[in-house]
Amino acid sequence: MMQQYRSNSYLFGGNAPYVEELYEQYLDNPGSVPDNWRAYFDALQNVPAVDGSEARDVPHAPVIESFAQRAKSNAFAVKTSSADLAVARKQVHVQSLIAAYRFLGSRWADLDPLKRHERPRIPELEPAFYDLVESDMDITFSATNTYFTKADQMTLREILQALRETYCATIGAEFMHITDPGEKRWWQERLESIRSKPAFTAEKKKAILERLTAAEGLERYLHTKYVGQKRFSLEGGESFIAAMDELIKRGGEKGVQEIVIGMAHRGRLNVLVNTLGKMPKDLFAEFEHKAPEDLPAGDVKYHQGFSSDVSTPGGPVHLSLAFNPSHLEIVDPVVEGSAKARMDRRGDKEGGQVLPVLVHGDAAFAGQGVVMETLALAQTRGYYTGGTVHIVINNQIGFTTSDPRDARSTLYCTDVVKMIEAPVLHVNGDDPEAVVLCTQLALDYRQQFKKDVVVDIVCFRKLGHNEQDTPSLTQPLMYKKIAQHPGTRKLYADKLVAQGVISPDDADAMVKAYRAAMDAGRHTVDPVLTNYKSKYAVDWTPFLGKKWTDAADTALPLAEIRRLSERITTVPSNFKLHPLVEKVIADRAAMGRGEINVDWGMGEHLAFASLVASGYPVRLSGEDCGRGTFSHRHAVLHDQNREKWDEGTYIPLQNVAENQAPFVVIDSILSEEAVLGFEYGYASADPNTLVIWEAQFGDFANGAQVVIDQFIASGEVKWGRANGLVLMLPHGYEGQGPEHSSARLERFMQLAADNNMQICQPTTASQIFHLLRRQMVRMFRKPLVIMTPKSLLRAKDATSPLAEFTKGEFRTVIGELDAGIVAEKVKRVIVCSGKVYYDLVKKREEKKAGDVAILRVEQLYPFPHKAFAAELKKFPNATDIVWCQDEPQNQGAWFFVQHYIHENMLEGQKLGYAGRPASASPAVGYAHLHQEQQKALLEQAFAKLKGFVLTK
């Protein structure tokens, strides 16, 4: 009877695998099964549909009874006994047990090398929770939806043992939160088929031990030779170096040719020497304060980047470790941007050749918001890098946190990655073979599915946060355990000795050999390719060591401007434009013919078109940048009759010439910090692309201040890293309140030194044209911060005749252009920057003040002393010089430019200020108050000097 039941019941017959998988899918995600089955399961349980986490606790008896009733129905000729029904019930219980281990097994995994915590109580992982008892252990059940054996059946004892070996040993896998069934099956097959245990050869095991010896050896050498100096030791997490070695070698085998690495301090020196092949003697020189002094500022040794080429079984692989400030995770988007630039250079759309690797600390990974912002970019079109391998050096302590309840609000430090359904492999750092296996699996998953994946190496921190700390002050019990720990290398060496893989003398010989290499200052990575150069490598030397110059030939022949204008105003005949956009395109066509002056949007377009036509790619990203926040750009046109993105959009700048360079425009996610960091990283890897980030409003750059301070402003003086990134920050006082007025010009002025960046505030369409072209035509790269206008985008006064595009260049200072002004009669020179110039001109006309000249400073830094002095000397009889600005007195450029202006004043001249009074807020929020302040500052610009006056 039992055999007959097994042959014909839909639980045990040919439908068994289908039913088992269907029910497992229901437990995981009710929405993933057909509606009729979902409704049926829901009704049987007499509870609402639940998600996967709750489904583990549903009663299974009604389901079993229903299956049994179906088996007894007229659809099946076989009559079943109560014993048969009991077996059927237990079969589904077994399926639920298997699902529970796949979901929750990591909670029971042996992950902590210090063994400080008891295993939590999880009833769902106990057979008794499913009414499975000892007498059931030797009953054979279907195992067709598992990969533990090639047979269709296993005893419950065998199934339970296989589950615990796979999911509860030194690897705890989390992947059941992934929606795609194929990806979940991939993980089940890869883990269950080997029960999460590698089968490494003796040579492989020796190689792992050698890397552990190198990791421990460097730290002990530095600890002995440079007592008390900060190095952020890797001791306790040495398996990480074995993981990096495996990642590089296996990556080479899988077709990876470049690896871009981002990591903070912990273990960084170890990676520099033992992974990238930095010469130990060079590192020692930094400890001895003998580092090269060719940088104006320099940086501490554990912030330094490095690059090298190493040999792998699949060929050479270029390694690049990004420079990193103390802001830990801020390097994440920078690495992603650098990887994207390298992909684009190779034409590697899927990311198979370029691999971003991010190394995290457990506390920072859980605690810093840029992690989430960067993860949010992972599968978007403009920022896709083919998946990132994340490695967490999880020392279970963070910085000084003494209680895990204060470290985070999630169970695991990696839980944030579940927002993008990234799988996580938690692994005990004291099992280096498991660490290497997890690294293999992570890389294989990334290469196949092109998605993010995490290896969480649970280890410990032997010393304090740095070598000057006393961690036992706040973690006494933890550090008692650590003091008793023999070290990962010792544990693994003893294991290999016990296995007969090596002798005790072999292990000692490895230690001595590494120490000898340290004493000699030799390479510890074999082999580092010293003479290899990839054809995709970028040569930065043409851009380095150049003296600052404002001059650049940026004008274009009239014929070329007209050709470009025609191309960017031509739309496919079957493409229906919105009436407002249709007028914009028609006006631009007229501008190209010289019939009307060129406005700001057309000036930008001509600059972009000319650059891509000349072979310079353009990459523009930011919130609303395709249309432009103020609807001035319209780089992306939308067909009013088609909604589908691929068919319903047209980008004229991608159709300028047959062999043009790419033009990429991306409406970014609602992020400033990660997106700006990404674009900085992109520009750092590609000097030949015009990379632009545009803030929706200038003040939104506040959210990316760390990127601005630590990378854009200081990257060159700290690390020697040139970068040509452009920031477009809408700035202007039009009464829109404190968050929509100021791009915080004063902050950029405060950061300006050592010719580290350009800060410009252009006021005409031709100026933005020449400025953008200058950024690429000049053979040096500096960040460019542009205070872009809002009201001037469509102001007639800010338009430019076509002639200004066919001659001239970007003017750092624009002198007095009014023909009615006689230089000898000028008694006052008002100096300003930005939109306020046009307000001052109108006020002068109103007052009929013919004795007042107005100068515009279009480049605030580096201050154009020569050009400014030349303009000022045109008015030898002027006694008053007034700086006028829209911003409050404690903001804007006033406190910075007053010294520059004073330096160029003539004897006897006095310098005064006209503008809003000092304020804690960038702007007032009331329109009437804004108007009163604007009126007052314009009056002040023409009034008698009072208050602070600086005399030459």
UniProtKB/TrEMBL annotation:
Keyword Oxidoreductase tagged: yes
Residues forming the Transketolase-like pyrimidine-binding domain are 598-795
The UniProt keywords, alphabetically, are: Oxidoreductase, Thiamine pyrophosphate
Task: Quote one Gene Ontology molecular function term.
Answer: oxoglutarate dehydrogenase (succinyl-transferring) activity
The protein's required cofactor(s) are namely: thiamine diphosphate
Q: Which residues form the signal peptide?
A: none
Pfam hit, one:
Transket_pyr
Q: What is its EC number?
A: 1.2.4.2
Which PANTHER family did the record assign? 2-OXOADIPATE DEHYDROGENASE COMPLEX COMPONENT E1 (PTHR23152:SF4), 2-OXOGLUTARATE DEHYDROGENASE (PTHR23152)
Q: What does this protein do?
A: E1 component of the 2-oxoglutarate dehydrogenase (OGDH) complex which catalyzes the decarboxylation of 2-oxoglutarate, the first step in the conversion of 2-oxoglutarate to succinyl-CoA and CO(2).
Q: Which NCBIfam families match?
A: 2oxo_dh_E1, PRK09404.1, PRK12270.1
Could you identify this protein by its name? oxoglutarate dehydrogenase (succinyl-transferring)
- List the source organism: Caldimonas aquatica
Lineage of producing organism: Bacteria, Pseudomonadati, Pseudomonadota, Betaproteobacteria, Burkholderiales
